[in-house]
Amino acid sequence: MRDSGKYRWVIVALLFFATTINYLDRQVIGLLKDNLASELNWSEQDYSAIVMAFTAAYAVGLFLFGRIVDFVGTKWGYKISIITWSLAAVGHGFVRSTFGFGFMRTILGLGEAGNFPTAIKAVAEWFPKKERAFATGIFNSGTNIAAVFGPFLVMWIYSQYGWREAFIWTGVLGFIWLILWQLYYDVPQNQKRLSKTELEYINSDPEPSQENKNRSKLSVLFSKKGTWVFSMGKFFTDPIWYFYLFWIPTYFNSTYHIDLKSSWIYVSTIYFVASFGSIIGGYFSGLLIRKGWPVMLARKRAMLIYAFFALPIVLIRFTSDAWVAVALISLAAAAHQAWSANIFTTASDYFPNKDVSTVVGIGGMAGSASAIVFPYVIGIVLDHFKDLGNISAGYNIIFVFCGCAYLFAWTVMHFVARTKS
To answer: Whole-model pTM?
Structure first.
């Protein structure tokens, strides 16, 4: 079918900016970690506990929002999510204790959990399968754009006004985005700006007509192998991204003695490269589908390639040059984002639109559950090697795990997918 009309890319732009704000808000604490630790006397394990509070709430929120969004729809799902997380982001600027940070991180985690279940469902509603990974890759690159410009923005606000204002100013961005969402978003069948031709193109691979339009029961979804394939992939790889997001700035500080005000150029470079991984990674599997590959085989082959691209990070222990470390981490981060663009899309490949958010929430909860434990392990490892006067060795151990996680996850997904549903 001839493609005529581009309004669906306006939707992707909205999802991109929402995801950018989502990651900017959660990133602030990682960028200011050493400053806050000095002022509030945090240990590595104190900081890990705060990260775990966020991650635990995020895990619960993913499951809840997955179900909520499939019930109330994408438009209201995003409204509830972004109001909650933006209020929490601003609230960080008014707390004065470690407990206060933990509380605000909990609310932030609950609210931010709505982003991906809603965005993936919106992509499933607005795009045919051959474009979904590409669209997902574009909006998912917002996680990297936040990391490219976030360090500069946050450090500028911090240097000019202080850490409280850094949380408040970035939190306000969500309310600005909410106005645009209200003005420009609706499901395709209700969107008056959408041409008939583009609507037909969006629905060029419709769901089976005999499909029950009611949401599936959770027991039914948990019995499907597609749920477990998606969940296992998230379980073994989501914690890696949390490590990159929350610990990379202080990695450069502790290993190369680069303070946080100077390290933004290194961090920004990593995520600038990673943004291309997200977009190209999503485009590549779509290209294979357009060339005639079966949908799931195209996703699977692409993800195997990205898993190999994540491996070289294990060599970081052999470099003493910060820019070589940047190159290795950039490649690993790009591989993760390419992997993410495809694994998110498998949820809409396996399941009808009515269940997509719930499945994304279940898989996201699995990923966050493992990410609850991983920061705790990171804190123990880094504190141990810090006491020995060699914290870099602790980071090197963690990087080995990061490099191997994707091949292990791919292998698990492969064997789960081969089992009978």
So the answer is: 0.81
